[in-house]
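Notebook p. 47: complex prediction with zinc ion.
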Amino acid sequence: MDNIFFNQYTFDELLEMLKNKYEWLKLHKERVEKENEEHRNKTYEIGYVSKLREENKRLKEDYYRGFPISKEEKEAIDKWVAEHYKTCKEKGFSYHFYPTPLGVAGVMVCSCGAKFEFQEIG
Ligand SMILES: [Zn+2]
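Predicted complex, structure tokens below:
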């Protein structure tokens, strides 16, 4: 070997250099892999959070667009339905909402025609 680089080192020294280079590359590879992993996690988190934001926005829009029924109104409806079914053989109700300048009136109507106003105005 007449290479000027190799000629100035002994075999052991070259071996040591090679070993050091190998160790450095190994550490470098581990660091890069760790960085990639962190980047992947971050990208996933950003995607997940933005998905949650979209979902939250959609739910809020549904809520404001729709006519929410309160817990108390729901309880009153359930009570009325249970009572009504004691005498009515029809099965099936429809909800009717009437927007008025004073607020939204909510009426439940049975197939038989019976009505229950669960959201009263004023
Ligand atoms: Zn009925």
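Notes: DSSP finds three helices and three strands in the chain. Residues 67-119 form one domain.
Next step: compare against the earlier run before touching the bench.
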